[in-house]
Every structure is written in structure tokens, then in C-alpha cells.
């Protein structure tokens, strides 16, 4: 989401909306890590929880064969830092439209992947700098965008 919106805008030189003046923390996760997590889950289907008690239900348990996992890098970074990493990878400074926090938004979020790790032994490992660099390189190739870092 932010990867695509911000990258496209920075390459085109159009403004990006930066809420809470960039003073937010988000957990950016590289797509290959998400795919790896999904593939591992597919290899281990859910089964009913034997310890589920319908007389005293626990919302974290069910006798239905499904599991819900949070997938993310579990390493939130400031939005302002993320934008700087993206600018460096693209080779152009973002035109930032600094805005207040949106109603209903939160200043920080991150993924707790302990259930995913316990179920299939997987945690995303791609750090944000490597993920952003790989994403920007993919965008350059796929959309045939020149490498703006060479023009500096």
C-alpha cells in the first residue's frame, strides 16, 4: 500500500500525504516474507482445538478447523524513516504534504507473529532497507523507470 503509493508519487514528483507529520510507527513487511509465511501455513492445515470448551468459550480457541495468524516483520519503524529509506532507494526526495493524524488512526502498529512462529516455525526476516531496495528495483524493471540514483 504505502510502498506503491509513495514510490509512484516520488518517482513522478507528486506529493505524498504524510499523516501525523511522519511521527507514526509502522511494521513494513516485504512481500516475499508474506508469501513464505502463507506457503508454510498451507503445508500445515489447521485442526480443531481439543481443549476448546463450548461451555466456557475462549475467543482464542475454537473447535472449527481454522487458524488466524498475524504476519509482519515485527520491527516497526517511524514513517519518516521509512520515507527516507524509500527516497534513498529511488534517488529523489519526496514532496511531503505533512498532515495531522487521521481520525481513527493510531500512532503505532506492529505485528505480533508469535502464533505464526509457534505453528510453522516462521518469522519474516527481510529488513526494511533490503525490502525497499528490492521493491524499488522491481518497480524500475516492471514499469521501465530509470534508476534515479544514478542522476544524483
Provide the fold topology.
Blueprint: H1 2-12, E1 16-19, E2 25-26, H2 31-42, E3 77-78, H3 79-90, E4 96-99, H4 114-120, H5 128-143
Parallel strand pairs: 1-4
Antiparallel strand pairs: 2-3
Describe this structure in words.
There is one protein chain. The protein has 152 residues and is mainly alpha-helical. The chain is 38% helix and 8% strand. The protein has helices spanning 2-12, 31-42, 79-90, 114-120, 128-143, and strands at 16-19, 25-26, 77-78, 96-99. It has one domain (2-44, 60-151): Rossmann fold (3-Layer(aba) Sandwich). It is built from five helices and four strands. The strands form two sheets. A two-stranded parallel ribbon has the order 1-4. It has a two-stranded antiparallel sheet with strand order 2-3. The protein is elongated and about 60 Å long. It starts with a helix and ends in a 9-residue tail after the last helix.
- Cα Rg: 19 Å
The biggest sheet amounts to: 2 strands, parallel
Q: Report, as a whole number of angstroms, the end-to-end distance.
A: 27 Å
Average pLDDT, to the nearest integer? Answer: 90
Order of the strands making up the biggest sheet: 1-4
Structural class: mainly alpha
Q: Which blocks of ≥5 consecutive residues have pLDDT under 50?
A: none
Using DSSP, what is the number of strands?
4
CATH fold name: Rossmann fold
Q: Name the CATH superfamily assignment.
A: NAD(P)-binding Rossmann-like Domain
**CATH architectural arrangement:** 3-Layer(aba) Sandwich
> What is the helix tally?
5
Q: Identify the overall geometry.
A: elongated
Residues in helices, as a percent range: 25-40%
Query: Secondary-structure element sequence?
Result: HEEHEHEHH
Amino acid at each position: 500500500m504505502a510502498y506503491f503509493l509513495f514510490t509512484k508519487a516520488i518517482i513522478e514528483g507528486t506529493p505524498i500525504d504524510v499523516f501525523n507529520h511522519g511521527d507514526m510507527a509502522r511494521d513494513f513487511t516485504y512481500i516475499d516474507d508474506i508469501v513464505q509465511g502463507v506457503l508454510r501455513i498451507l503445508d500445515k492445515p489447521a485442526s480443531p482445538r481439543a481443549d476448546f470448551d463450548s461451555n466456557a468459550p475462549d475467543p482464542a480457541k475454537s473447535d472449527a478447523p481454522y487458524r488466524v495468524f498475524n504476519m509482519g516483520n515485527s520491527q516497526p519503524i517511524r514513517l519518516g524513516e521509512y520515507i527516507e529509506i524509500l527516497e534513498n532507494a529511488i534517488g529523489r526526495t519526496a514532496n511531503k504534504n505533512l498532515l495531522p493524524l487521521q481520525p481513527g488512526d493510531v500512532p503505532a502498529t506492529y505485528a505480533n507473529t508469535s502464533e505464526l512462529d509457534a505453528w510453522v516455525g516462521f518469522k519474516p526476516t527481510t529488513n526494511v532497507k533490503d525490502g525497499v531496495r528490492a521493491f524499488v528495483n522491481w518497480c524500475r524493471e516492471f514499469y521501465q523507470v530509470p534508476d534515479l540514483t544514478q542522476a544524483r
